[in-house]
Amino acid sequence: MPMDIQQLRYFVAAAETGSITRAAARCRVAQPSVSQQIARLEATLNHPLFDRLPRGIALTDAGKALLPRAKRILSEYDDALLHFEDDLDQGVGRFTIAAIPTIAPYLFPKLLPMLARDFPRAQLTAIEDTTENLIAQLHDHTIDAAILSPPIDDPAIKLRTVASEPLLLSVSADHPLAHRPRAAVPDLRSEPTIALSEAHCLAHQITGFCASKRVAPNIVCRTTHLATTLALVEQGLGIALIPLMAARATPSTKRSDLHFARTPPTRDIAIATHKSSSPSRITDHLADLTKQLCERHDQN
Question: Which domain holds residue 50?
């Protein structure tokens, strides 16, 4: 029979008071309960812990060996109970956050310091990867939460949408469209277009938007990174649809980023977790902060 906390508590009380009766009074239980639990502890250890004396009890060598360990165990146990909620509030432990490449560069620099400030005892780790790889890592539980852009066709993944982000039309500063107050869907027709690789969900979202408007972009280049897309736009090599957060994070006098006048293309921003994962205070706060940062982008 394994020892339990109550047995150790009764043992320490008896050792410190030198009496089963006084130990029972300290623990506010009947004396037979203390005697029975100490007897069970002795049976588990296969050693007597006390010599029974005419007046009280005295520790045996086994009891003397157990006493400091029992005190440490009880101290750790009581400390865990006392500080458990505080540890939860401060996010004690490792927490791995991930984001797709069209989000991470624009949210992580502000998001991660805010999380570290609000959960000072958390061991935060950040990962940037494509949607497909992040879904696999959620299944493997090697990451705790991912900032993605739906849709995600996986019944094991739970999504919490926190924002809807507009996409802007980015053109070089000397492009004829640069001085217009707003962009229009017909502007996408026939213009040389810089597009992201189809490994990115944003590329599929833009393709879907164009198809819904019966626009076939004239794609002259596909890139892996939005930074490359923007650099090519600035050189006048084509136009591009880019997320608002990318435009806000990388202002440039070499290009103009235009909102659409009507029915703008958008993408949703969501926090993804595995459905088998327990609720997490850090995940909840991550969702709140992500929503706040997306709203700031929209207001600027």
Answer: 5-89
